[in-house]
Amino acid sequence: MDYYNQDYKGQSERSRWTPLTRMLLSGEMTQERQKELSAKEKFDRWMVNEGYRRVFVFVFALLHMLVFAFAFVNYGVKDNLQIARDTFGPTFMIARSAALVLHLDVALVLFPVCRTLISLARQTPLNGIIQFDKNITFHKVTAWSIVFWSWVHTIAHWNNLGQAAAKNNLGVYGFLVANLVSGPGWTGYVMLVALMGMVFTSVEKPRRANYERFWYTHHMFIIFFFFWSIHGAFCMIQPDFAPFCTATGASAVGVFWQYWMYGGFAYLAERIAREVRGKHKTYISKVIQHPSNVCEIQIKKEHTKTRAGQYIFLCCPAVSLWQYHPFTLTSAPEEDYISIHMRIVGDFTRTLAQTLGCEFEKRGGGGDKKDTSQVVGVDGENPDVDPALRRVLPRVYVDGPFGSASEDVFKYEISVLVGAGIGVTPFASILKSIWYRMNYPKKRTRLSKVYFFWICRDFGSFEWFRSLLLAIEAQDVDNRIEIHTYLTAKIKADDATNIMINDANADKDTITGLRSPTNFGRPNWDMIFRGIRKLHSPAEAGVFFCGPKGLGSALHIFCNKYSEPGFSFVWGKENF
Protein backbone atom coordinates (compact mmCIF):
# COMPACT_ATOMS: atom_id res chain seq x y z
CA MET A 1 0.00 0.00 0.00
CA ASP A 2 1.28 3.50 -0.88
CA TYR A 3 1.16 5.59 2.28
CA TYR A 4 2.70 8.65 0.61
CA ASN A 5 0.00 9.33 -1.98
CA GLN A 6 -3.48 9.03 -0.52
CA ASP A 7 -6.25 11.55 -0.93
CA TYR A 8 -8.81 12.10 1.80
CA LYS A 9 -11.13 14.72 0.37
CA GLY A 10 -13.42 16.29 2.87
CA GLN A 11 -11.61 14.70 5.76
CA SER A 12 -9.21 17.41 6.88
CA GLU A 13 -7.76 15.59 9.85
CA ARG A 14 -6.98 12.45 7.85
CA SER A 15 -5.46 14.49 5.06
CA ARG A 16 -2.98 15.86 7.59
CA TRP A 17 -1.80 12.41 8.63
CA THR A 18 1.82 11.68 7.83
CA PRO A 19 2.71 8.49 5.89
CA LEU A 20 3.99 6.83 9.06
CA THR A 21 0.79 7.71 10.93
CA ARG A 22 -1.33 6.29 8.10
CA MET A 23 0.58 3.02 8.25
CA LEU A 24 0.30 2.74 12.02
CA LEU A 25 -3.44 3.51 12.04
CA SER A 26 -4.15 1.12 9.18
CA GLY A 27 -3.56 -1.83 11.50
CA GLU A 28 -1.11 -3.42 9.09
CA MET A 29 1.78 -3.43 11.58
CA THR A 30 -0.21 -5.31 14.23
CA GLN A 31 -0.40 -8.30 11.89
CA GLU A 32 3.32 -8.33 11.09
CA ARG A 33 5.38 -10.91 12.93
CA GLN A 34 8.92 -10.36 14.09
CA LYS A 35 11.37 -12.13 11.81
CA GLU A 36 13.21 -15.11 13.26
CA LEU A 37 16.96 -14.46 13.09
CA SER A 38 19.81 -16.91 12.87
CA ALA A 39 22.61 -16.88 15.43
CA LYS A 40 24.87 -14.95 13.03
CA GLU A 41 22.13 -12.41 12.29
CA LYS A 42 21.53 -11.91 16.02
CA PHE A 43 25.25 -11.35 16.52
CA ASP A 44 25.37 -8.84 13.64
CA ARG A 45 22.39 -6.99 15.14
CA TRP A 46 24.07 -6.96 18.56
CA MET A 47 27.22 -5.49 17.02
CA VAL A 48 25.34 -2.50 15.53
CA ASN A 49 24.86 -0.68 18.85
CA GLU A 50 26.20 -2.90 21.63
CA GLY A 51 29.04 -4.95 20.25
CA TYR A 52 31.84 -2.42 20.03
CA ARG A 53 31.01 -0.93 23.43
CA ARG A 54 30.82 -4.31 25.15
CA VAL A 55 33.95 -5.56 23.40
CA PHE A 56 35.79 -2.41 24.45
CA VAL A 57 34.72 -2.78 28.09
CA PHE A 58 35.76 -6.44 28.00
CA VAL A 59 39.17 -5.60 26.51
CA PHE A 60 39.58 -2.74 29.00
CA ALA A 61 38.84 -5.02 31.97
CA LEU A 62 40.96 -7.85 30.53
CA LEU A 63 43.91 -5.51 30.04
CA HIS A 64 43.68 -4.40 33.67
CA MET A 65 43.49 -7.95 34.95
CA LEU A 66 46.46 -9.01 32.80
CA VAL A 67 48.55 -6.08 34.04
CA PHE A 68 47.61 -6.94 37.62
CA ALA A 69 48.32 -10.66 37.13
CA PHE A 70 51.70 -10.17 35.44
CA ALA A 71 52.72 -7.61 38.07
CA PHE A 72 51.65 -9.93 40.89
CA VAL A 73 53.76 -12.77 39.46
CA ASN A 74 56.70 -10.41 38.88
CA TYR A 75 56.68 -9.04 42.44
CA GLY A 76 56.14 -12.56 43.74
CA VAL A 77 59.29 -14.03 42.16
CA LYS A 78 61.57 -11.01 41.89
CA ASP A 79 64.77 -11.99 43.69
CA ASN A 80 65.59 -8.58 45.21
CA LEU A 81 62.24 -8.21 47.04
CA GLN A 82 62.41 -11.27 49.29
CA ILE A 83 62.76 -9.23 52.50
CA ALA A 84 59.66 -7.17 51.63
CA ARG A 85 57.66 -10.33 50.89
CA ASP A 86 58.74 -11.89 54.19
CA THR A 87 57.86 -8.73 56.12
CA PHE A 88 54.52 -7.81 54.56
CA GLY A 89 53.21 -11.04 53.08
CA PRO A 90 51.05 -11.38 49.92
CA THR A 91 49.44 -7.96 50.35
CA PHE A 92 52.80 -6.45 49.35
CA MET A 93 52.37 -7.96 45.86
CA ILE A 94 48.73 -6.85 45.79
CA ALA A 95 49.63 -3.24 46.67
CA ARG A 96 52.44 -3.06 44.12
CA SER A 97 50.34 -4.71 41.37
CA ALA A 98 47.41 -2.36 42.01
CA ALA A 99 49.84 0.56 41.75
CA LEU A 100 50.93 -0.60 38.30
CA VAL A 101 47.31 -0.79 37.13
CA LEU A 102 46.82 2.73 38.50
CA HIS A 103 49.75 3.93 36.39
CA LEU A 104 47.88 2.68 33.31
CA ASP A 105 44.65 4.45 34.28
CA VAL A 106 46.39 7.68 35.24
CA ALA A 107 48.12 7.67 31.85
CA LEU A 108 44.72 7.43 30.07
CA VAL A 109 42.27 9.45 32.16
CA LEU A 110 43.12 12.92 30.80
CA PHE A 111 42.96 12.15 27.07
CA PRO A 112 39.13 11.78 26.86
CA VAL A 113 38.56 15.28 28.29
CA CYS A 114 40.76 16.95 25.65
CA ARG A 115 37.77 18.22 23.69
CA THR A 116 39.78 19.74 20.86
CA LEU A 117 41.63 16.48 20.34
CA ILE A 118 38.37 14.51 20.36
CA SER A 119 36.71 16.90 17.87
CA LEU A 120 39.66 16.59 15.50
CA ALA A 121 39.62 12.80 15.87
CA ARG A 122 35.90 12.71 14.97
CA GLN A 123 36.75 14.10 11.54
CA THR A 124 39.20 11.30 10.75
CA PRO A 125 38.46 7.81 9.35
CA LEU A 126 39.14 6.49 12.86
CA ASN A 127 35.70 7.79 13.87
CA GLY A 128 34.17 4.82 12.08
CA ILE A 129 36.19 2.44 14.26
CA ILE A 130 36.55 4.21 17.61
CA GLN A 131 33.46 5.70 19.25
CA PHE A 132 34.88 9.13 20.06
CA ASP A 133 31.40 10.29 21.12
CA LYS A 134 31.80 8.05 24.17
CA ASN A 135 34.79 10.05 25.42
CA ILE A 136 33.07 11.13 28.64
CA THR A 137 31.93 7.56 29.26
CA PHE A 138 35.52 6.36 28.82
CA HIS A 139 36.71 9.08 31.20
CA LYS A 140 34.18 7.93 33.81
CA VAL A 141 35.08 4.25 33.40
CA THR A 142 38.77 5.06 33.81
CA ALA A 143 38.05 7.27 36.82
CA TRP A 144 36.02 4.54 38.55
CA SER A 145 38.85 2.12 37.83
CA ILE A 146 41.22 4.55 39.56
CA VAL A 147 38.89 4.66 42.56
CA PHE A 148 38.67 0.86 42.75
CA TRP A 149 42.40 0.17 42.44
CA SER A 150 43.24 3.06 44.78
CA TRP A 151 41.24 1.40 47.53
CA VAL A 152 42.79 -1.99 46.73
CA HIS A 153 46.21 -0.36 47.01
CA THR A 154 45.29 1.46 50.24
CA ILE A 155 43.73 -1.52 52.01
CA ALA A 156 46.66 -3.74 51.03
CA HIS A 157 49.09 -1.21 52.49
CA TRP A 158 47.06 -1.01 55.71
CA ASN A 159 47.78 -4.69 56.15
CA ASN A 160 51.43 -4.20 55.14
CA LEU A 161 51.97 -1.48 57.73
CA GLY A 162 50.12 -3.48 60.34
CA GLN A 163 52.38 -6.47 59.67
CA ALA A 164 55.50 -4.30 59.90
CA ALA A 165 54.35 -2.65 63.15
CA ALA A 166 53.54 -6.03 64.72
CA LYS A 167 56.83 -7.69 63.72
CA ASN A 168 58.85 -4.74 65.05
CA ASN A 169 56.80 -4.39 68.27
CA LEU A 170 55.77 -0.82 67.37
CA GLY A 171 52.10 -1.24 68.27
CA VAL A 172 49.27 1.04 67.19
CA TYR A 173 51.47 4.13 67.54
CA GLY A 174 53.96 2.75 65.02
CA PHE A 175 51.13 1.83 62.67
CA LEU A 176 49.70 5.38 62.81
CA VAL A 177 53.13 6.98 62.35
CA ALA A 178 53.79 4.86 59.27
CA ASN A 179 50.37 5.80 57.89
CA LEU A 180 50.27 9.51 58.64
CA VAL A 181 53.87 10.70 59.01
CA SER A 182 55.82 8.72 56.43
CA GLY A 183 56.10 10.28 52.96
CA PRO A 184 54.15 7.58 51.09
CA GLY A 185 51.54 7.59 53.86
CA TRP A 186 50.55 11.25 54.03
CA THR A 187 50.89 11.85 50.26
CA GLY A 188 48.66 8.83 49.68
CA TYR A 189 45.96 10.16 51.99
CA VAL A 190 46.09 13.60 50.36
CA MET A 191 45.56 11.95 46.98
CA LEU A 192 42.75 9.78 48.33
CA VAL A 193 40.92 12.78 49.81
CA ALA A 194 41.29 14.71 46.53
CA LEU A 195 40.10 11.71 44.52
CA MET A 196 37.03 11.04 46.65
CA GLY A 197 36.17 14.74 46.68
CA MET A 198 36.10 14.70 42.89
CA VAL A 199 34.07 11.49 42.84
CA PHE A 200 31.37 12.55 45.31
CA THR A 201 30.69 15.85 43.52
CA SER A 202 30.71 14.35 40.03
CA VAL A 203 27.98 11.76 40.64
CA GLU A 204 24.90 12.78 38.64
CA LYS A 205 22.60 14.08 41.40
CA PRO A 206 25.20 16.22 43.25
CA ARG A 207 26.56 17.49 39.95
CA ARG A 208 23.15 18.60 38.70
CA ALA A 209 22.29 20.09 42.08
CA ASN A 210 25.39 22.29 42.11
CA TYR A 211 27.48 22.40 38.94
CA GLU A 212 29.80 25.04 40.39
CA ARG A 213 30.77 22.72 43.22
CA PHE A 214 31.52 19.96 40.71
CA TRP A 215 33.55 22.34 38.53
CA TYR A 216 35.76 23.64 41.31
CA THR A 217 36.30 20.37 43.16
CA HIS A 218 37.24 18.65 39.91
CA HIS A 219 40.27 20.92 39.78
CA MET A 220 41.59 18.97 42.74
CA PHE A 221 43.08 16.78 40.02
CA ILE A 222 46.04 19.18 40.17
CA ILE A 223 46.63 18.17 43.80
CA PHE A 224 46.16 14.52 42.89
CA PHE A 225 48.72 14.53 40.07
CA PHE A 226 51.25 16.60 42.00
CA PHE A 227 51.34 14.22 44.94
CA TRP A 228 51.16 11.25 42.59
CA SER A 229 54.46 12.40 41.10
CA ILE A 230 56.26 12.36 44.46
CA HIS A 231 54.38 9.47 46.10
CA GLY A 232 57.01 6.90 45.15
CA ALA A 233 60.09 9.05 45.72
CA PHE A 234 60.49 8.43 49.48
CA CYS A 235 62.28 5.07 49.19
CA MET A 236 60.30 3.54 52.08
CA ILE A 237 60.64 -0.05 50.83
CA GLN A 238 64.19 -0.87 49.72
CA PRO A 239 65.26 -3.74 47.43
CA ASP A 240 67.46 -6.49 48.84
CA PHE A 241 70.54 -5.44 46.86
CA ALA A 242 71.82 -2.61 44.65
CA PRO A 243 70.84 -0.48 42.94
CA PHE A 244 69.21 1.04 46.01
CA CYS A 245 66.67 3.86 46.11
CA THR A 246 68.03 7.06 47.68
CA ALA A 247 66.33 10.21 48.93
CA THR A 248 68.87 12.34 47.06
CA GLY A 249 69.97 12.53 43.46
CA ALA A 250 67.97 11.09 40.56
CA SER A 251 65.93 8.75 42.80
CA ALA A 252 64.52 11.69 44.74
CA VAL A 253 62.65 12.88 41.65
CA GLY A 254 60.78 9.61 41.35
CA VAL A 255 59.43 8.02 38.20
CA PHE A 256 55.67 8.19 38.74
CA TRP A 257 55.34 11.42 36.73
CA GLN A 258 56.61 9.65 33.62
CA TYR A 259 53.40 7.63 33.36
CA TRP A 260 50.95 10.53 33.13
CA MET A 261 53.13 13.20 31.51
CA TYR A 262 51.85 12.55 27.96
CA GLY A 263 48.22 12.90 28.99
CA GLY A 264 49.23 15.85 31.17
CA PHE A 265 50.95 17.65 28.30
CA ALA A 266 47.95 16.99 26.03
CA TYR A 267 45.56 18.37 28.65
CA LEU A 268 47.80 21.37 29.35
CA ALA A 269 47.85 22.16 25.62
CA GLU A 270 44.06 21.75 25.60
CA ARG A 271 43.60 24.21 28.47
CA ILE A 272 45.97 26.76 26.90
CA ALA A 273 44.18 26.44 23.55
CA ARG A 274 40.86 26.75 25.36
CA GLU A 275 41.92 29.99 27.05
CA VAL A 276 43.38 31.48 23.86
CA ARG A 277 40.37 30.44 21.81
CA GLY A 278 37.86 31.57 24.39
CA LYS A 279 39.38 34.95 25.13
CA HIS A 280 38.96 36.43 21.66
CA LYS A 281 36.43 39.27 21.52
CA THR A 282 32.91 37.86 21.37
CA TYR A 283 29.79 39.98 21.72
CA ILE A 284 26.15 39.22 22.40
CA SER A 285 23.95 40.72 19.69
CA LYS A 286 20.47 39.95 21.06
CA VAL A 287 18.78 38.51 24.15
CA ILE A 288 15.25 37.09 23.96
CA GLN A 289 13.24 36.03 27.00
CA HIS A 290 10.97 33.06 26.26
CA PRO A 291 8.18 31.59 28.40
CA SER A 292 8.87 28.95 31.05
CA ASN A 293 12.26 30.29 32.08
CA VAL A 294 14.09 29.99 28.77
CA CYS A 295 16.54 32.66 27.65
CA GLU A 296 17.82 32.83 24.07
CA ILE A 297 21.27 34.34 23.59
CA GLN A 298 22.41 35.31 20.10
CA ILE A 299 26.15 35.88 19.70
CA LYS A 300 27.95 37.55 16.82
CA LYS A 301 29.58 34.95 14.60
CA GLU A 302 33.19 36.02 14.20
CA HIS A 303 35.84 33.61 12.88
CA THR A 304 33.72 30.65 13.97
CA LYS A 305 32.69 27.72 11.80
CA THR A 306 29.91 25.53 13.11
CA ARG A 307 28.10 22.36 12.08
CA ALA A 308 24.60 21.26 12.95
CA GLY A 309 24.38 19.42 16.26
CA GLN A 310 27.50 20.90 17.85
CA TYR A 311 27.83 22.49 21.29
CA ILE A 312 29.91 25.21 22.93
CA PHE A 313 31.20 26.06 26.39
CA LEU A 314 30.14 29.53 27.51
CA CYS A 315 31.75 31.79 30.09
CA CYS A 316 30.49 35.21 31.15
CA PRO A 317 33.18 37.09 33.16
CA ALA A 318 30.49 39.33 34.66
CA VAL A 319 29.08 36.21 36.36
CA SER A 320 32.16 34.05 36.89
CA LEU A 321 35.60 34.42 35.35
CA TRP A 322 36.45 30.71 35.41
CA GLN A 323 33.21 28.79 34.91
CA TYR A 324 32.54 27.37 31.43
CA HIS A 325 29.17 25.67 30.96
CA PRO A 326 28.09 23.48 28.00
CA PHE A 327 25.20 24.58 25.79
CA THR A 328 23.92 23.06 22.57
CA LEU A 329 23.86 25.40 19.58
CA THR A 330 20.35 26.15 18.32
CA SER A 331 21.48 28.18 15.31
CA ALA A 332 22.17 26.65 11.91
CA PRO A 333 25.63 26.83 10.30
CA GLU A 334 24.06 28.86 7.50
CA GLU A 335 23.05 31.71 9.85
CA ASP A 336 25.28 34.71 10.56
CA TYR A 337 25.13 34.29 14.34
CA ILE A 338 25.35 31.50 16.88
CA SER A 339 22.62 31.06 19.45
CA ILE A 340 21.79 28.99 22.51
CA HIS A 341 18.55 28.51 24.42
CA MET A 342 19.34 28.45 28.13
CA ARG A 343 16.89 27.06 30.64
CA ILE A 344 17.08 28.77 34.04
CA VAL A 345 17.68 25.86 36.43
CA GLY A 346 20.74 26.75 38.53
CA ASP A 347 22.71 29.55 40.13
CA PHE A 348 24.89 30.22 37.07
CA THR A 349 22.04 30.34 34.54
CA ARG A 350 19.86 32.45 36.84
CA THR A 351 22.61 34.99 37.48
CA LEU A 352 23.53 35.11 33.79
CA ALA A 353 19.90 35.69 32.77
CA GLN A 354 19.59 38.54 35.28
CA THR A 355 22.84 40.06 34.02
CA LEU A 356 21.44 39.98 30.48
CA GLY A 357 18.26 41.78 31.56
CA CYS A 358 15.79 38.91 31.92
CA GLU A 359 13.30 39.17 34.76
CA PHE A 360 11.91 35.68 35.22
CA GLU A 361 11.62 35.84 38.99
CA LYS A 362 10.12 39.31 38.95
CA ARG A 363 7.47 38.31 36.44
CA GLY A 364 7.14 34.86 38.01
CA GLY A 365 5.50 33.53 34.94
CA GLY A 366 2.58 35.90 35.49
CA GLY A 367 1.38 38.97 33.70
CA ASP A 368 -0.03 39.47 30.24
CA LYS A 369 3.16 38.39 28.51
CA LYS A 370 3.70 35.11 30.24
CA ASP A 371 3.03 33.09 27.07
CA THR A 372 4.97 35.26 24.63
CA SER A 373 8.62 35.76 23.80
CA GLN A 374 10.13 39.18 24.31
CA VAL A 375 13.36 40.83 23.19
CA VAL A 376 14.96 42.24 26.34
CA GLY A 377 18.25 43.49 24.94
CA VAL A 378 20.00 44.28 21.65
CA ASP A 379 23.60 45.28 21.03
CA GLY A 380 23.92 48.99 21.79
CA GLU A 381 25.88 49.66 18.59
CA ASN A 382 22.96 48.67 16.36
CA PRO A 383 21.16 51.87 15.26
CA ASP A 384 18.29 50.03 13.52
CA VAL A 385 16.50 48.86 16.64
CA ASP A 386 14.23 50.44 19.22
CA PRO A 387 16.36 52.73 21.44
CA ALA A 388 14.56 51.32 24.48
CA LEU A 389 16.08 47.91 23.74
CA ARG A 390 19.57 49.15 22.95
CA ARG A 391 21.97 48.47 25.78
CA VAL A 392 25.53 47.46 26.50
CA LEU A 393 25.43 43.69 26.79
CA PRO A 394 28.18 41.87 28.67
CA ARG A 395 31.00 40.11 26.88
CA VAL A 396 31.13 36.34 26.81
CA TYR A 397 33.90 33.85 26.14
CA VAL A 398 33.06 30.98 23.79
CA ASP A 399 35.05 27.76 23.72
CA GLY A 400 34.23 25.53 20.78
CA PRO A 401 32.24 24.45 18.94
CA PHE A 402 32.69 20.76 19.61
CA GLY A 403 31.17 17.74 17.93
CA SER A 404 28.51 15.41 19.31
CA ALA A 405 26.63 12.34 18.14
CA SER A 406 23.85 14.50 16.66
CA GLU A 407 26.39 15.99 14.26
CA ASP A 408 26.23 12.71 12.32
CA VAL A 409 22.58 13.15 11.37
CA PHE A 410 23.44 13.80 7.69
CA LYS A 411 25.45 10.58 7.38
CA TYR A 412 22.36 8.37 7.27
CA GLU A 413 19.62 7.85 4.69
CA ILE A 414 16.98 8.01 7.41
CA SER A 415 17.28 10.04 10.61
CA VAL A 416 15.00 9.64 13.60
CA LEU A 417 15.19 12.59 16.00
CA VAL A 418 13.59 12.31 19.44
CA GLY A 419 13.46 15.30 21.76
CA ALA A 420 11.75 15.30 25.16
CA GLY A 421 11.21 18.54 27.07
CA ILE A 422 14.21 20.87 26.89
CA GLY A 423 15.93 18.03 25.02
CA VAL A 424 14.59 19.47 21.78
CA THR A 425 17.34 22.11 21.74
CA PRO A 426 20.01 20.02 19.92
CA PHE A 427 17.57 19.44 17.09
CA ALA A 428 16.82 23.12 16.51
CA SER A 429 20.18 23.54 14.78
CA ILE A 430 19.76 20.31 12.81
CA LEU A 431 16.23 21.07 11.62
CA LYS A 432 17.23 24.62 10.65
CA SER A 433 20.17 23.27 8.66
CA ILE A 434 17.89 20.77 6.91
CA TRP A 435 15.53 23.64 6.09
CA TYR A 436 18.37 25.67 4.57
CA ARG A 437 19.57 22.70 2.54
CA MET A 438 16.06 22.15 1.17
CA ASN A 439 15.71 25.79 0.14
CA TYR A 440 19.30 26.31 -0.97
CA PRO A 441 20.45 22.86 -2.15
CA LYS A 442 24.15 23.62 -2.56
CA LYS A 443 25.42 20.88 -0.27
CA ARG A 444 24.81 17.27 -1.22
CA THR A 445 23.58 15.03 1.55
CA ARG A 446 22.79 11.35 1.89
CA LEU A 447 19.81 12.20 4.07
CA SER A 448 16.47 11.58 2.36
CA LYS A 449 13.96 11.36 5.22
CA VAL A 450 13.70 12.80 8.74
CA TYR A 451 11.30 11.71 11.46
CA PHE A 452 11.11 14.18 14.31
CA PHE A 453 9.32 13.16 17.53
CA TRP A 454 8.64 15.94 20.02
CA ILE A 455 7.42 14.79 23.44
CA CYS A 456 6.37 17.47 25.89
CA ARG A 457 4.02 18.11 28.79
CA ASP A 458 3.26 21.68 27.69
CA PHE A 459 3.95 22.96 24.17
CA GLY A 460 3.44 26.52 25.39
CA SER A 461 6.75 26.23 27.20
CA PHE A 462 8.56 26.02 23.87
CA GLU A 463 6.97 28.72 21.77
CA TRP A 464 10.34 29.49 20.18
CA PHE A 465 10.66 25.91 18.97
CA ARG A 466 7.09 25.68 17.74
CA SER A 467 7.70 28.75 15.56
CA LEU A 468 10.71 27.01 14.05
CA LEU A 469 8.66 23.90 13.26
CA LEU A 470 5.96 26.01 11.60
CA ALA A 471 8.54 27.64 9.32
CA ILE A 472 10.10 24.29 8.42
CA GLU A 473 6.76 22.63 7.75
CA ALA A 474 5.66 25.48 5.49
CA GLN A 475 8.72 25.00 3.27
CA ASP A 476 8.71 21.19 3.33
CA VAL A 477 6.59 20.63 0.22
CA ASP A 478 8.20 17.24 -0.47
CA ASN A 479 7.33 15.90 2.99
CA ARG A 480 10.96 15.02 3.72
CA ILE A 481 10.48 15.95 7.38
CA GLU A 482 7.70 14.25 9.32
CA ILE A 483 6.85 15.97 12.59
CA HIS A 484 5.15 13.88 15.28
CA THR A 485 4.14 15.76 18.43
CA TYR A 486 3.08 14.06 21.66
CA LEU A 487 1.40 15.86 24.54
CA THR A 488 1.82 13.86 27.76
CA ALA A 489 0.00 16.17 30.20
CA LYS A 490 -3.41 15.15 31.53
CA ILE A 491 -6.24 17.02 29.81
CA LYS A 492 -9.64 17.76 31.31
CA ALA A 493 -12.65 16.18 29.63
CA ASP A 494 -14.11 19.54 28.55
CA ASP A 495 -10.79 20.64 27.06
CA ALA A 496 -10.45 17.35 25.19
CA THR A 497 -13.96 17.75 23.74
CA ASN A 498 -13.21 21.30 22.56
CA ILE A 499 -9.95 20.17 20.96
CA MET A 500 -11.72 17.36 19.07
CA ILE A 501 -14.48 19.65 17.82
CA ASN A 502 -12.09 22.38 16.66
CA ASP A 503 -9.65 19.91 15.12
CA ALA A 504 -12.15 17.80 13.19
CA ASN A 505 -12.48 20.05 10.13
CA ALA A 506 -9.39 22.20 10.52
CA ASP A 507 -6.45 22.23 8.15
CA LYS A 508 -4.04 22.80 11.06
CA ASP A 509 -3.71 21.32 14.51
CA THR A 510 -5.56 23.26 17.19
CA ILE A 511 -2.78 22.99 19.78
CA THR A 512 0.45 23.41 17.83
CA GLY A 513 -0.70 25.10 14.63
CA LEU A 514 1.15 22.44 12.62
CA ARG A 515 -0.36 20.38 9.79
CA SER A 516 0.44 17.13 11.58
CA PRO A 517 -2.08 16.31 14.35
CA THR A 518 -1.03 16.23 17.99
CA ASN A 519 -0.93 12.80 19.62
CA PHE A 520 -1.97 12.44 23.25
CA GLY A 521 0.00 10.22 25.59
CA ARG A 522 3.33 8.53 25.02
CA PRO A 523 4.54 7.13 21.70
CA ASN A 524 4.14 3.43 20.92
CA TRP A 525 7.80 2.90 20.06
CA ASP A 526 7.31 -0.74 19.10
CA MET A 527 4.93 0.22 16.32
CA ILE A 528 6.96 3.27 15.30
CA PHE A 529 10.22 1.39 14.86
CA ARG A 530 8.49 -1.41 12.97
CA GLY A 531 6.70 1.12 10.77
CA ILE A 532 9.87 3.01 9.85
CA ARG A 533 11.62 -0.26 9.03
CA LYS A 534 8.66 -1.35 6.89
CA LEU A 535 8.57 1.92 4.93
CA HIS A 536 12.28 2.21 4.18
CA SER A 537 13.89 -1.23 4.24
CA PRO A 538 16.60 -1.80 3.07
CA ALA A 539 18.35 1.20 4.59
CA GLU A 540 20.25 2.49 7.61
CA ALA A 541 18.59 4.84 10.10
CA GLY A 542 20.37 6.95 12.69
CA VAL A 543 18.42 7.46 15.93
CA PHE A 544 19.35 10.62 17.83
CA PHE A 545 17.94 11.45 21.24
CA CYS A 546 18.21 14.09 23.93
CA GLY A 547 16.09 13.95 27.05
CA PRO A 548 15.46 11.90 30.20
CA LYS A 549 17.77 8.97 30.85
CA GLY A 550 14.92 6.44 31.16
CA LEU A 551 13.53 7.20 27.72
CA GLY A 552 17.02 7.09 26.24
CA SER A 553 17.59 3.61 27.64
CA ALA A 554 14.26 2.43 26.20
CA LEU A 555 15.06 3.82 22.74
CA HIS A 556 18.47 2.17 22.87
CA ILE A 557 16.76 -1.18 23.46
CA PHE A 558 14.34 -0.60 20.57
CA CYS A 559 17.26 0.18 18.24
CA ASN A 560 18.78 -3.19 19.08
CA LYS A 561 15.46 -5.01 18.94
CA TYR A 562 14.37 -3.85 15.49
CA SER A 563 17.69 -3.90 13.66
CA GLU A 564 17.85 -6.81 11.23
CA PRO A 565 19.70 -7.80 8.04
CA GLY A 566 18.98 -5.08 5.49
CA PHE A 567 17.93 -2.44 8.01
CA SER A 568 19.83 -1.07 11.01
CA PHE A 569 18.85 1.45 13.66
CA VAL A 570 22.11 3.07 14.80
CA TRP A 571 21.85 4.59 18.28
CA GLY A 572 23.22 8.00 19.18
CA LYS A 573 22.57 10.52 21.96
CA GLU A 574 23.78 13.84 23.31
CA ASN A 575 26.71 13.40 25.64
CA PHE A 576 28.55 16.24 27.41
Describe this structure in words.
The structure is a single chain. The chain is an alpha/beta fold and 576 residues long. 47% of the residues lie in helices and 15% in strands. It has 20 helices and 14 strands. It has helices at 12-15, 19-26, 39-77, 82-88, 90-108, 115-122, 135-167, 171-180, 183-202, 204-209, 211-217, 221-231, 257-278, 347-356, 360-363, 425-439, 463-475, 493-504, 525-536, 549-561; strands at residues 284-290, 294-300, 311-315, 325-328, 337-343, 374-379, 390-391, 397-402, 414-420, 449-456, 481-487, 518-520, 539-546, 567-573. It has a six-stranded parallel beta sheet with strand order 12-11-10-9-13-14, with helices on both faces. A five-stranded mixed beta sheet has the order 5-2-1-6-7, covered by helices on one side. A three-stranded antiparallel beta sheet has the order 4-3-8. A hairpin with a 3-residue loop joins strand 1 and strand 2. 32% of the residues are buried.
Spell out the blueprint of helices and strands.
Elements: H1 12-15, H2 19-26, H3 39-77, H4 82-88, H5 90-108, H6 115-122, H7 135-167, H8 171-180, H9 183-202, H10 204-209, H11 211-217, H12 221-231, H13 257-278, E1 284-290, E2 294-300, E3 311-315, E4 325-328, E5 337-343, H14 347-356, H15 360-363, E6 374-379, E7 390-391, E8 397-402, E9 414-420, H16 425-439, E10 449-456, H17 463-475, E11 481-487, H18 493-504, E12 518-520, H19 525-536, E13 539-546, H20 549-561, E14 567-573
Parallel strand pairs: 6-7, 9-10, 9-13, 10-11, 11-12, 13-14
Antiparallel strand pairs: 1-2, 1-6, 2-5, 3-4, 3-8
Helix pairs in contact: 3-5, 3-20, 5-7, 5-13, 7-8, 7-9, 9-12, 16-17
GO cellular component, one term: NADPH oxidase complex
Domain FAD-binding FR-type: 277-408
Subcellular location: Membrane
